[in-house]
Amino acid sequence: MARAPLLQLSEISLTFGGDPVFDGLSLTIQPGDRVALVGRNGSGKSTLMKVMAGLVEADRGEVVLSAGVSTGYMEQDPDLSGFATLGEFAASGLPESEAYRVEMAAEGLKFDPARPVATASGGERRRAALARLLAQAPELMLLDEPTNHLDIQAIGWLEDHLSQTRAAYVLISHDRAFLRRLTRATLWIDRGEVRRQEKGFEGFEDWRESVWSAEDEARHKLDRKIKAEARWAVEGISARRKRNQGRVRALAALRAERSAQIRRQGTAAMALDSGPQSGKKVIEAKGIAKAFGGRTILRPFDLLVNRGDRVAFVGPNGAGKTTLIKMLTGEVAPDEGTVMLGTNLEVAVFDQTRSQLNPDQTLWESLTGDPDMRVSGRADQVMVRGQPKHVVAYLKDFLFDDAQARAPVRSLSGGEKARLLLARLMARPSNLLVLDEPTNDLDVETLDLLQDLLGEYDGTVLLVSHDRDFIDRVADTTVAMEGDGRATVYAGGWSDYRAQRGDDTPDAVSETARKAAAPADRPKAAKSGLSFTERHRLDALPAVIERLEAEIGKLIQFLAQPDLFTAAPAKFQKATEALAERQQALAAAEEEWLALEEKAEG
């Protein structure tokens, strides 16, 4: 028997003081759906998710949530006012007996529940909001950029959690590896129309290109028909005293149809100028080390960066990636060792905190207010790679329209702020790019373009990122900050780094599991005939087993309360079902681990 849908949107129309965001939109979310919600920055992804969550009311249409269905929405900027600590916020609305869920999520997402809200960073607030949603375990989860501000280890934990949940979810994310692993269907917002394909994100780009190809062919045929009819109309004047008015009206209708078609938004006209060539040796670090307040950030470390290298820095949040880059570029002095910088260096920095952007300035002022960009004596032009250009024309290169030029920076979405920061960075010639989390909030098309630009860039790139797919596409060297001040250099990108590490991979195996593993056992998976996917799964299973055992222990402790059955029969039933589910999952995980271990041993 078919189950009722969790959520239905019927003939939704929504306008924000201009062109409609959606018009006549209908879609359904079914139980167990795992949906990627994709589209260009500004296409309305977050707005649609807020409509689903009931936070934005449509002008017309109907939103129906099936009776008894619980939903949870994670927004990009959660409001924590009224709560003293992150843990208090994350546990709000939960029964005390289920507070352990917050503790487990906090451990996986790497934030301190005792952290006061007043001193918490934006990333910590977002992680607390995500922990709150996961702890509530709704039947439908609406997740808007859940991987932002998560390190690769936390992203791996979240992937494992979502891959095992029975809940349905809709995901907005720039992380292609995350979407590929977790989704089974794709909602694509394109010029106000929402299309659905019953395939995960893995098939999105091929699907998009086939849709656009068919659209281009249909437009070409329509243009040819209009041209033919227009020729007939002109020649008919001399050929006949009275033209066929029906064909004239049909020509007008064809022209109206053509003008009503919404042209696809192009890609940003981004460009990089590598400026004067630097010396062959860009950075040489010998024995550099750093400590803050008695905490070791970096143990003695050597690195040679030559012209044209693309070096990615990976590791947990707080491991010291940004500090290491600042030492390598001379911004921070090491406690020990030396850093020698090459000749003719011109450095451009993309700062993940976007501190270069003043939220109170307009986009226009953000560009013309920079003395390095402003053309002397002209308040409406900026210097772009040595050539003057009107500020609005340059903003259009980065997909901003005329109206946005005078809008405040604070009104921009996360992706638009990232594009504005790229506009500032790319206006200057440079031969050393420092990119600290450049992929946050960017749409797939802009990510592809940025990747292509970096591939063609003659200069050197230092990249901090938690986007595994982007690292694989860009980096030729990876520096892993592995904790306790350790930093190790690996050839290649993220996948190459993991392959070289074998089963001792920091984002796949918990610290407890690594310490418990016998040193002699560690290289087995790497030497076996396991595939890359099987090695990854074998790496991840100890952490999965450990988490399931912890959850089972908590549930057994909860069910051991003598008066639980009589005082709260519904909670008793729910906990009993959860216990059975986790015991079954634990047995399956242990069986899978044994099978892979046997295969690894040959």
UniProtKB/TrEMBL annotation:
Superkingdom assignment: Bacteria
Gene Ontology MF terms in the entry: ATP binding
Cleaved signal peptide residues: none
Annotated Gene3D superfamilies: P-loop containing nucleotide triphosphate hydrolases, Valyl-tRNA synthetase, C-terminal domain
Keyword Nucleotide-binding: yes
ABC transporter domain segment(s): 7-216, 283-511
Parts forming coiled coils: 572-599
Pfam family, one: ABC_tran
Keywords: ATP-binding, Coiled coil, Nucleotide-binding
Identification of the protein by name: ATP-binding cassette domain-containing protein
